[in-house]
Structure formats: structure tokens, C-alpha cells
């Protein structure tokens, strides 16, 4: 019974935290609305209401465009990784038997190729990891 009570308390706590985050998000949206209104007021006082509206519209357009481009870049990277993995999964079973038969006939060549593949794989993997971290 203690596990059920702990589960109920955990669910209540999660609901309370979600409600607190929702109220905080609403307060943040309200503050951003007042910030935009104050910015519009300051621009209108300095340059006029029409210019202030155009400046803010342009700023929000550029902001939306930047966010959309970031989203597209993230989506493109995910699709590229998926397509590379799919290609590897399709090609590997086809090429592996032929490569293994050829390498079984020449053991020294097999060791040389294996070492080369490992070195190139380590180099490409380290570059890929460094690029994905930045």
C-alpha cells in the first residue's frame, strides 16, 4: 500500500509543478506583451506610430524567419542521419559476403584493409562527433 500512496503523491506533485509552470508561462507571455507595447510606445514617441508598427512587424518577421530556419536545419540534420543509417543498413549485407570471400583468400591484405578501415572510421567518427557537438 505504501507504493500506491507514494505514486499518488508523486502524481499530485507532478500536477502541481505543471500548474506552476503554466502560470509562470502565462506571466512570461504577459510580460512580453507589455515589453512589446512599451517598445512600440517608445518608437511611436520618437518616430511616429506608423514607423513604430512597421519596425516591430519587421522585427517579428525576422525573428519568425530565424526560428523557422533553425527548425528546418534541425529537421534536415535528422533526415540526413537517418538516410545515412538506412544506406549503411542496405549496403552492408550486400557487400559483406563478397568482401569476406575476397579477404579470406589473402590474409595479409585482409589485415591491412581492416587496419585501414578502422583508422578511417575512427577519423571520420571523431570529425563527425566534433561537428555535431558544435
UniProtKB/TrEMBL annotation:
Q: Where are the transmembrane segments?
A: 15-39, 51-72, 109-130
Question: Which key words are in the record?
Answer: Membrane, Transmembrane, Transmembrane helix
**What domain of life is recorded for the organism?**
Bacteria
Q: What is this protein called?
A: Uncharacterized protein
Q: Which organism is it from?
A: Phreatobacter oligotrophus
Upper lineage is: Bacteria, Pseudomonadati, Pseudomonadota, Alphaproteobacteria, Hyphomicrobiales
Amino acid at each position: 500500500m505504501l507504493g500506491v500512496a507514494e505514486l499518488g503523491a508523486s502524481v499530485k506533485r507532478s500536477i502541481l509543478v505543471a500548474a506552476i509552470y503554466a502560470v509562470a508561462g502565462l506571466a512570461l507571455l504577459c510580460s512580453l506583451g507589455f515589453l512589446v507595447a512599451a517598445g512600440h510606445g517608445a518608437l511611436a514617441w520618437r518616430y511616429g506610430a506608423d514607423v513604430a508598427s512597421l519596425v516591430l512587424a519587421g522585427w517579428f518577421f525576422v525573428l519568425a524567419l530565424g526560428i523557422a530556419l533553425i527548425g528546418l536545419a534541425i529537421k534536415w540534420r535528422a533526415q540526413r542521419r537517418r538516410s545515412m543509417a538506412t544506406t549503411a543498413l542496405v549496403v552492408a549485407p550486400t557487400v559483406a559476403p563478397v568482401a569476406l570471400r575476397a579477404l579470406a583468400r589473402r590474409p595479409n591484405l585482409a589485415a591491412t584493409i581492416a587496419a585501414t578501415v578502422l583508422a578511417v572510421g575512427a577519423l571520420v567518427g571523431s570529425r563527425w562527433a566534433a561537428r555535431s557537438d558544435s
